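The authors assume throughout that readers already know how a fold can be written as C-alpha cells. A single example would do more here than another paragraph of explanation. An entry of this sort, consisting of the sequence and the corresponding C-alpha cells, reads as follows:
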Amino acid sequence: ALAGKDLLHTQASAEGQTMDIATTHNTRCHKCKSNIYFLLNRIHGAIEHKYQATGVSVRLASYRGSDLYPELEAIHEALIAFRGYESFVNAKTLQRCDLFVPAVGSVVELDERQHFSAPRAVSLEHYPATLAVGFDRKSYITRCNQLQQKDNDPKYPYRDEQRAWYDTLRDFLPLLLPRQVTGPTIRIPLGFHAWCSLNPENATHVSHFRELTGL
C-alpha cells in the first residue's frame, strides 16, 4: 500500500542491527540516495531518474478556471501572507522530479533538510483533506516547525517559499497529470535515517525498506 508513512519517527532492525533515526546523518549522503534508487529498482524494476513532469506550470495564473485553482490559490496566498513575499516564482515550468516508479505510477522525492522549513509547514497545513499523499503529512509539519530550516541566500530571500510552492505542485501531480502520474507523490526524508546502511542485495534489508516506505 502507498499510504503516507511516518518515516521521521520510525525504527526498524536488520539482522540484529537497530537502525535508529539518524538525526545527524549527512542529509546529502550520496550512498543514501543511490541505495534508495537500487532498492526501488530491486522491488519494482525500471526506475526513471530525474523524471520530467511534462508541461506542469509553476504559475498560479495557469490554473485559473480549473477545479484545482481554489485549492492552489489558498496555498499560494498563505505562503505570501507568511513573510510578505508576493513574488517567489521565477520559472515557467516545474523542474525534474527525483524519481518516478512506473510500476506504481508515483513520483518519489528525496527530501534533504532544506525542505523542512516554516513555509513548507504553511503549505502542508493548507492541503485539502482530499489530496492523497504518500507520506505522513502531520509528521512533516511537525518536523518543519521543529527544524525551521532557512535558505540564507541574500539574492533569493524568498527561496523557502519558492521551494515550498514547487514541492506543493509535485504533491499535486496526480491531479495535475492524472494520465502520467497515477499514484500519490511519495517523500523519503534524508538525514533522519541511515538509508546507506541498507544493502539492496539483502532480502531482509529490502523487506525493511518496504516496511519503512510502503513501497
User: Anything to note?
Assistant: The two ends are 7 Å apart (CA to CA).
